[in-house]
Structure formats: structure tokens, C-alpha cells
Amino acid sequence: MLRKSQIAALTLLAAIMWAGVTYQIKHNPNPGETREIMRFLLAPVGGVISVWLCKVVGRLSNEQLLAGTALVGGLAMVLDGAALRWFHGLYGFNEQVLRVAAAGLLWGYGVAYLIAIVWVSLATRKQPGLS
Predict the structure, then answer these.
(1) 129 backbone dihedrals φ, ψ, rounded to 5°
(2) How would you write 39-60 as a 3-class SS string?
(3) What are 74-129's pLDDT values in tens digits?
(4) Do 77 and 109 form a contact (C-beta atoms < 8 A)?
(5) Contact status, residue 70 vs residue 10, Cβ threshold 8 Å
(6) Residue among 3, 123, 21 at smallest CA distance from 75
(7) R_g over Cα of the chain
(8) Torsion, Cα of 31, 37, 42, 46 (10° steps)
(9) CB 54: neighbour CB atoms within 10 A?
(10) H-helix or E-strand spanning residue 124
(11) Secondary structure (3-state) at 90
(12) Residue 39 contacts by C-beta under 8 Å, 6 or more apart in sequence?
């Protein structure tokens, strides 16, 4: 279970990460096909960094890592959902840009969650007596 201080730290991290990605989408809406493909291919690197940030900022144990990552991702997804539904001007007004941004956000969240699962699985295997 996460402590209140961990929840607060991870909530702040979620807001900062969401704001950073939102800024990037807003100010670089048409990066071109090659850059867009690179964003998808490099998502695992971003996922590892995101999971690591959750672990460090939240001071999470391996047992807490999935919950912490789910909290950060869940909060960011709620913010994305609200922004795409009611405040889509945050990302821009071009429907193509919004569709590609939404696809990238979903891809990134999925990759980060999978990395968190693998991270915890590998950490658990390294600890004797745990299965």
C-alpha cells in the first residue's frame, strides 16, 4: 500500500510529466512521419525512465512499483481524457494532430505499464525466497 507522502509525490510527478508531454504535443504538433515513428520506437526508453522516476520520486519498494506506476499513469490518463474531451485546444485543434497524439499517449502508457510489470518480475526473481 502506498503512504500519503508517496501518493502526494507521485501525484505531483504525474502532473509534471503530463504537462511536459502536453507542451511537447502543443508546440511540435507535426513532427513528420520519421520523427513520429521514432517516438513510437523510442517509447520503451521513455517507459524505463518513467518507471524509474516513479520508483525514485515515490521512494517505492519493488512491491509498490506497480501501484505507484498505475497511480501516475492513471492520473495522467484522466488528465489526457479531460483535455481531449473538453479542453482539446491544449493539444491543438487539428483532428489529425489530436488522433496521432491520442495514439501516442495510449502507446506510451501501455509500454510504461508493461515495463513496470517486467521490472517487478525481474526484481522479484532476484530476491531469494520470493516467487
Answers:
(1) 90, -10
(2) HHHCHHHHHHHHHHHHHHHCCC
(3) 999 999 999 888 987 888 888 887 888 888 889 999 999 999 999 999 988 876 65
(4) yes
(5) no
(6) 21
(7) 16
(8) 50
(9) 29
(10) helix 95-126
(11) helix
(12) 31, 104
